From TrEMBL:
Major location (coarse): membrane
Compartmental location: Cell membrane; Membrane
Residue span, MotA/TolQ/ExbB proton channel domain: 119-219
Bilayer-spanning residue ranges: 34-57, 149-172, 192-212
Family that this chain belongs to: Belongs to the exbB/tolQ family.
One cellular component (GO) term of this entry: plasma membrane
Topology in the lipid bilayer: Multi-pass membrane protein
GO terms for biological process, alphabetical: protein import
Protein name: MotA/TolQ/ExbB proton channel domain-containing protein
Keywords assigned by UniProt, alphabetized: Cell membrane, Membrane, Protein transport, Transmembrane, Transmembrane helix, Transport
Signal peptide residues on this chain, from the entry's feature table: none
């Protein structure tokens, strides 16, 4: 995903460089810079496309998790009570669905059923489900670690571009005999404007990514919480154990 979206970012920079007028190119890609096409702005766009692609993938994953809740793995009739003989067919259906190792809900159901078949204890099933949900929440957090780094990296690149641009502008103004040129002020302020515009673009990119990331991460966390609630309501609280502690 990172390789593909990185190439998309490179292609986007190439399109900008070929089609944008000079004033827009200075704002977005610094086409007149000394290091172009290896400018800071181009690296920012590549990083932005990589992060956007990863966020799109995470959004699809969250939608897939929410769809699992509508597949009816467990009986949802409030009058239904699950006995030990009912768990085997449910387990097989979950495992045959192809998502038993990928999505939250099938993983929770299959682990809880296995735990109950081993221990015949609803309490141990509940403990296992809580531990599994904690691990899944940590798994979600780890998935967003690269995105958090990119969201931090883009403004950093913008500030690096600004500092570099200021240095180049001052070096240009300090060249011998340059102070006598009537266009010196216009040239220096133009270079400084490009540098500060790069920081502005970086901050806008970071704001967009942070907003999008919060939406997607919240959606995944809601999917996990809904999966745990579904498993608790329709599996843990439905299993019948007789007074002797044996599954019915």
């Amino acid at each position: 995903m990172a390789a593909v979206t990185g190439l998309v970012g490179v292609a986007l920079c190439a399109v900008f460089g070929l089609t944008l007028p000079d004033h827009a190119a200075k704002l977005l890609i610094d086409r007149g810079g000394l290091l172009y096409p290896f400018s800071v702005q181009n690296f920012m766009w590549v990083a932005f496309c990589i992060a956007a692609g990863e966020l799109a993938a995470r959004m699809r994953a969250a939608s897939r998790e929410l769809r699992q809740l509508r597949l009816g793995y467990l009986p949802e009739d409030p009058r239904t009570v699950l006995q030990a003989d009912d768990l085997g067919p449910i387990y097989r259906r979950v495992r045959e669905g192809g998502m038993a190792e990928r999505c939250f809900l099938p993983r929770l159901i299959s682990r809880c059923i296995l735990q109950f078949q081993i221990s015949a204890s609803v309490e141990q099933c509940t403990t296992l489900m809580n531990a599994t949900m904690d691990l899944m929440a940590h798994e979600i957090e780890l998935r967003y670690a690269p995105l958090r780094y990119i969201t931090w990296l883009i403004p950093s690149l913008g500030f690096i571009g600004t500092v570099t641009g200021i240095g180049h502008a001052l070096a240009y103004a300090g060249e011998p005999g340059r102070y006598q040129e009537p266009t010196l002020l216009t040239e220096v302020t133009g270079r400084l404007a490009v540098s500060f515009d790069g920081t502005l673009v970086a901050l806008v990119m970071a704001a967009i990514l942070m907003f999008w990331q919060n939406i997607v991460e919240t959606r995944e966390e809601l999917a996990l919480n809904a999966s745990g609630q579904y498993c608790l309501d329709h599996l843990i609280n439905r299993i019948y154990v007789d007074k002797a502690g044996r599954p019915a």
